[in-house]
Amino acid sequence: MAKVYATGRRKSAVAKVWLENGNGQLTINGQSLDEWLGGLESIKKRVMQPLEVSKQETSVNIVVKTLGGGYSAQADAVRHGISRALVAYDEQFRAILKPYGLLTRDARSVERKKYGRKKARKSTQFSKR
Fold first, then answer.
1. Which helix (H) or strand (E) holds 53?
2. pTM, 2 dp
3. Distance CA 122, CA 114 (A)
4. Which residue range forms the structural domain that includes residue 66?
5. Are 36 and 29 in contact (CB under 8 A)?
């Protein structure tokens, strides 16, 4: 089958994912998963979750470009993008991935700062007198 494209998002991070038949190579920003995330094993597991759940670790090649956000948000964006690409690749994966919540876009993002406050909610110390 031809290449399949999907976009994953989390906070301000975006991951552009291309998936095709192959032997299990995962390239993120021109690097392997180990080079990209170093020793952050729990985040690596999160990235690989859609492939492990659908048992596609060794049958598809994935190329990812990420931008925006930090490494944790980017990793979650990659996870979302891989899940969406797998569903576009084969619709049967939807029933497998949906119960794990892998197709849901995590809508939580940073709350904006309000005027008269130090941060979004933090204010100066209250003095009664």
1. helix 41-53
2. 0.89
3. 9
4. 4-100
5. yes
